[in-house]
Amino acid sequence: MLKVFKNFTLKESMLALLSVLLIIFQVWLDLKLPDYMSEITLLVQTQGSQMSDIYAAGGMMLLCAFGSLLTAILVAVIAAKISTNFGANLREKLFGKVLDFSLEEISTFSTSSLITRSTNDITQVQMLIIMGLQALVKAPILAFMAVTKIMDKSWQWSLATGIAVIILLVVVITALLLALPKFKSLQKLTDNLTHVTRENLTGLRVVRAYNAEDYQENKFGVVNDILTATHLFTSRTMAFIMPIIQLIMSGLSLAIYWIGAILINQAGVLDRITLFSDMIVFSSYAMQIVMAFMMLIMIFIMVPRAAVSAQRIQEVLDTEPTILDGSLSDAVNAEVGTVEFKNVTFKYPDAQTAVLEDVSFIAKPGETVAFIGATGSGKSTLVNLIPRFYDVTSGEILVNGIDVRQYSQENLHDYIGYASQKASLFEGSIKSNVAYGHNNRARVLDSDIVEAIEVAQASEFVEKLEDTYNAPVTAGGTNLSGGQKQRVSIARAIARQAEILIFDDTFSALDYRTDRQLRQALREEAADATKLIVAQRIGTIKDADRIIVLEEGRIVGNGHHEELMANCQVYQEIAYSQLSKEELA
Ligand SMILES: Nc1ncnc2c1ncn2[C@@H]1O[C@H](COP(=O)(O)OP(=O)(O)OP(=O)(O)O)[C@@H](O)[C@H]1O
């Protein structure tokens, strides 16, 4: 857990030190109170005492109490500042780290867990800092200073206090041992809750359409019940502790007064006043000691959960991305835009078998290379290896004649315009989505945006929107239709003016006419780019310079439409299943 606190900045560490000093001062002030109380008790019982002396001692008591209050407020403010800043920094670090992760790390942690780790887990650590700075530091100082104050008083009182503390410890340790495993499991259970909630919200339409509300509710109910039961168990255990602590405190007061009464009875007349004032002072100190232990207990309740949270945060921070940057930037060893696969075999990290096997081909600048094959044959996987969403298991992929692993990722991505199978849009406007990101070589101008939208056959619908190019887009593009989203995502790839354009099954969401027009526009406007197109429809790729047919991760056909119709059985089957012989002729 302590490792996560290494993320404290120097300023936060200095503030923490300041709050420790303030706490020592506050404890000193708190422990001065019983001294003045004892003085007043003595003054009251001593004949001939001056009223002004009592006022003076009372005034000092007030000052101490006021000083303690001010210091406590100051410490609370500092603790809040430290914990808030620390939380903000940690969230930023975590966010930055997750951005560097490849898809492998993200699936190892799971998206839901990464969300909980960046939110709830950080809150747990923040709470520990707030409470810890106030109570964790204060309690031992308070206990130590109070114990030194009462050491030279009667051993009977000390014994009573010692026994009370021992009973307190036994009760608390037993309760903690019972509740600890539950406290530790709370974060994992919160992960599960986020996971089910997220799944439900993202799939809401399907849930509704299939009348699966009850099923989802049950699924949610199960994880929610487990979390509730765990919370209840820990809260009940703690609820049981509090009255016991109260009982111990009251019992200790009673014991101190009882012992005091016996001692006073046995003492001579002169000693009685001293004993009486000692008793008052001792009971105050004893209460402070018990209070200190109570504070520690509160912290001990929070520590296990926060420790698990800190460990979960640190786990993310310690994870090194598997996809690392190469040292080359802007290096070129062949015609810019050339993409070459050399005996590429790829296996997903958690899978047993390879999804792509011994794949080799070359795509030259200006060429359109299409990939077709049955569902699950590995088309998306293949194109996703080019921007290094994953690294090949064996073989190599060359971009501009250089292994993609040698480039810095930023530099590699500068060459690529990518439209994913499932269009991902971001909150903003049509314009901000098309001009999204940057590649160091082309600044996307307004005219480029308009042109890219036109090539993507999106002008018609965009110009009909109230704010046209500035029309708002909600997170995930939920205010656009599937086809509209896909066209905006195609426009985004085109606006990048990259040398390599990758369309991962992006044309399937378009109607046949738009599909044809788009391909025509792309041929004209992006004539020099290498176009890699994953497609389901023969119509989409019929005109491609080269079509690569995949079956179970292997290339079973490589050529243009006519060649494949003549010699590739898999291609023929796909073609005949989609088009009539006349259309194919
Ligand atoms: N993240 C992943 N982890 C493990 N296996 C995966 C992952 N993504 C895809 N696969 C597997 O890899 C194989 C190829 O998937 P891929 O998405 O590349 O196929 P595809 O040809 O694009 O299919 P489709 O036409 O349906 O999009 C499938 O068997 C799939 O189950």
TrEMBL record:
Report the locations given in the UniProt record.
Cell membrane
Q: What is this protein called?
A: ATP-binding cassette domain-containing protein
Q: Does the keyword Nucleotide-binding apply?
A: yes
Q: What are this entry's molecular-function GO terms?
A: ABC-type oligopeptide transporter activity; ATP binding; ATP hydrolysis activity
Spell out the InterPro entries in the cross-references: AAA+_ATPase, ABC1_TM_dom, ABC1_TM_sf, ABC_transporter-like_ATP-bd, ABC_transporter-like_CS, P-loop_NTPase, Type_1_exporter
User: Which positions fall inside the ABC transporter domain?
Assistant: 339-577
What parts of the sequence cross the membrane? Answer: 12-29, 54-80, 127-147, 159-180, 240-260, 280-303
For this protein, the record's SUPFAM superfamilies field holds: ABC transporter transmembrane region (SSF90123), P-loop containing nucleoside triphosphate hydrolases (SSF52540)
**Where in the numbering of this chain does the ABC transmembrane type-1 domain appear?**
17-305
Which GO cellular component terms are attached?
A: plasma membrane
The family database entries (CDD domains) matched by this protein are listed as:
ABC_6TM_Tm287_like
Instruction: Please tell me where this protein is predominantly located.
Output: membrane
What organism does the record attribute this protein to?
Answer: Fundicoccus ignavus
Family matches, as SMART domains = AAA
The annotated topology with respect to the bilayer is: Multi-pass membrane protein
Q: Does the keyword section mention Nucleotide-binding?
A: yes
Upper classification of the source organism reads: Bacteria, Bacillati, Bacillota, Bacilli, Lactobacillales
Question: What keywords are assigned to this protein?
Answer: ATP-binding, Cell membrane, Membrane, Nucleotide-binding, Transmembrane, Transmembrane helix, Transport
The record ties this protein, via PANTHER family, to:
ATP-BINDING CASSETTE SUB-FAMILY B MEMBER 10, MITOCHONDRIAL, ATP-DEPENDENT PERMEASE MDL1, MITOCHONDRIAL
